[in-house]
Amino acid sequence: MSSTSWLGGATSNPCQALEQPLSALQHALTVVSQAAGADLADAGPTQKPAINAAAKKELQEIDAQIAKLRPQLNACQSKRDVVVNANGNVHQLETSDGTVLTTPLSLADLHGHYRESWRVAPADPLLADCGGAAIEHGSPTKPFLARDLDTTIYNSARAICTNAGVKDPVLLDACTLDVAVLGTADAATVYVGAPAPVAVGEAGQTKQG
Predict the structure, then answer these.
(1) How many CB atoms lie within 10 A of CB 95?
(2) Quick one: average pLDDT of 75-81?
(3) CA–CA separation, 110 vs 205, rounded Å?
(4) CA 26 to chain centre
(5) What is the distance between the alpha carbons of residues 134 and 86, in angstroms, rounded to a whole number?
(6) I need a labelling partner for 136 at 20 to 30 A (CA). Which of 63, 127, 129, 175 fits?
(7) How many whole angstroms separate alpha carbon 34 and alpha carbon 198?
């Protein structure tokens, strides 16, 4: 996929399956506490110990469920893809510091705050596969998409992706660019059987308003 374009997937928030039940449990704590308070206000002296005991037990059970879910959510959030759709909206991208950028994005937006917020340090283990070689980095001055490739390179990479079974036009463009830039037919495998993107963005556009 081009460094100046991005694809919005159907599952924009992979951690939502954990966030929703955790939010419900936190709400349940408030509900149980409020209900117990109301019951205690109407109860006689002999009834209050039983009400307190029942509420305490229920709150402890909820706390135990929260304690089980929270580490899972923290782990999920720490491993989210770099292309993070904010608020479940495929037209919004979130930087690592939580800033939300709304499409269309300018080239400066994509390769400024957004890119820098997700930049990996040269010594990070994520780059171990680079074999210790010097890593080139820089900022593009204009978008570079599959259609910008040399014709011979484009046709060769396109054929590899087509033969691999990539059919969606958007994924086919992304596959073509990856195969050409990475220089290996293996780059096409990630696109085989992939669902069509819900939204597609290209940098270099000017924000409106």
Answers:
(1) 18
(2) 59
(3) 10
(4) 24
(5) 34
(6) 175
(7) 43
The kind and range of the H/E element at 25 are helix 16-42
> How would residue 14 be classed by pLDDT, with cut points 50, 70 and 90?
low
Domain boundaries, the chain: 16-78, 82-140, 142-209
What is the C-alpha separation between 137 and 204, in angstroms, rounded?
19
How much is the pTM? Answer: 0.52
Q: Is the pLDDT assigned to residue 177 strictly greater than 70?
A: yes
The tokens describing 43, both together, are 């109860």
Q: Where are the alpha helices (DSSP H) in 43-168?
A: 48-78, 107-109, 115-117, 151-164
Residue with tokens 């893809």: 81
pLDDT of residue 195: 82
Q: CA 150 to CA 44: how far, in whole Å?
A: 85
Amino acid, res. 68: K
Spatial distance between the Cα atoms of 30 and 176, rounded to a whole number of angstroms: 53
Q: What would the two tokens of residue 142 be?
A: 């204009």
CB 107 within 8 A of CB 142: yes
Can you tell me the distance from the alpha carbon of 114 to that of 108, in angstroms, rounded to the nearest whole number? 9
DSSP 85: B
